[in-house]
Amino acid sequence: MDVMGDKATLLETGRFVQPADREDPGAAAEEMRHRLAAEAGDVDAMSVLGSLLLRRGDLDGAESLLRAATAEGDRAAANNLGVLLHQRGYADEAAGWWRVAAVAGSAAAAHALGRHHRERGDEPAAEYWLRQSAEQGHALGAYALADLLEHRGDVGAERWMRASAERGHREAAYRIARALDRRATAERGDTKAAARAKADAKAKGARSAEAEAEQWYRQAAARGHRRAALHLGAILEQRGELKEAGRWYLNSAKDGEARAACALGFLLRDAGDEESAAVWWLKAAQDGDGNAANALGALHAERGETQTAERWYRAAMDAGDVNGAYNLGLLCAEQGRTAQADQWYRRAAYAGHREAANALAVLLLQGGDAAGAEPWFSKAAEAGSVDAAFNLGILYASRDDEGSALPWYERAAAAGHTEAALQVGTARLRDGDEQDAERHLRCAAGGGSAEAAYRLGTVLDARRPPAGPPALGEPAAEKTECEEWYERAAEQGHRRAQVRVGMLAAGRGDVVEAARWYRLAADAGSRNGAFNLGLLLAREGSEPEAALWWTRAADAGHGRAALRLALLYARRGQLVEGQRWASRAVELGPAEVSERAARLREALQQELTA
What we know:
By secondary structure, the protein is mainly alpha-helical. It has helices spanning 3-7, 25-39, 43-56, 59-71, 75-88, 91-103, 107-119, 123-135, 139-152, 157-166, 170-190, 196-222, 226-238, 242-254, 258-270, 274-286, 290-302, 306-318, 323-334, 338-350, 354-366, 370-382, 386-398, 402-414, 418-431, 434-446, 450-463, 481-491, 495-507, 511-523, 527-539, 543-555, 559-572, 575-588, 591-609.
């Protein structure tokens, strides 16, 4: 009978025993039955009773029984005797009994003997015995063999890791999942430089690896593996399955996984439950999670509790999270404590925090130290900071070094920086590369840049054939793409775009819409908007109101508006006022306006002196 060697779980989990939590009346009766049988000389009863006492921690009581059963050839007793001796510190004697049991066919003893040899550094012997255990279907033996082979870089490791996982070993399932995750990440990375067909195949392989990884994470998590539950939660969260993700995070967090508690906090925060989020962040931070400490710091900073925020940022920093120093820098900068902000930014930047390096450069630039800022911008940009790349472009452009600025703008634009894409698009327009300009302007406009939307509108507008007069009964034309971009910019308050949308509306005969856009532009300070609104009102017969808008435009330096006012006052017979506005139009120009205004002024002067 091989009870302990083949069926019971006491030794299948290693060589250390956990005492029973409390007395079970049924177990006590069973133990008494085995005791009576053992006293009557029953070898199986001696082996089982010895294992029960070993489980309880009664090593003295167990040893005599196990030795007696071992002497009668019971391999399970030999295995358990090895466990007992190992606990007493007699490792070599334990190995001797494990060898006896292993030779007799005990997979558990072969596993224990293999581990013993590995601890002694005898890898060939360890592999031999672990392989014996694994080939008999022992999950722990298969796992230990896989671990040994993986340590040596042997490709056979995966086979045994899978065998162990398939027999329910949760750590093996987790390690398979992690390996598949790394493989999927590598394959996704390879697709960037691969040819299209090869990239598609690799992408399919990455998706397959991800799906299999998820299955193994799920198996390990279901068996209580807290890190597997954490990774499974992250996969589900990324896929948008937030409810199930939250359940796995919760399971992992309850088992003491600080990262899961932190992730659960963010999930709750995003769901609007800030108070519950703070509870989990607090638990994670107290367990040493720097990310959770930073989250608590940010939470208190938002509430204006700066001292508490600073305390948590320091805790994050003490936990080894460099973001703590960066956040302390941000906090000090917001409070105007420039010297302290510089100190914390530098600490984070020297530790490799790229955004801290960028923030430090901005701080130095604001203080007038452009020379000191440049190397920090460069350091941050080279480390991958998109904002730093853009800022470095601005720095070079401020020195009129467009050649040096453009590559940095291009780098930031390639990473999705809206304003950098606008700068590249503008540069391409200057160079006459309209196709590349359009591509960058579309990126910037799509990212929300009103100026890019306006410039894109002008590019598309220039390609439109001139519109002829509509045929009788022809329906109004639909808005063109250029008008849609103008409108997008106009809705964001872009004054030139508002004027242009007004002009297009006026061209369609939509006077009300044109007036609305002109008025918005004029109220925002656009002199062209005010001038065009005046023209529109004058055509509609509202000349007095038109004069008000022309006056606003002329006062802002619009020469044509000044000329219109001069003509208006001349028609009314207000020659002096007309002459004054004619002189103003001569000053403002442009040339053709100045020429007409000069002739009008001379004519008015003749009238006045006649």
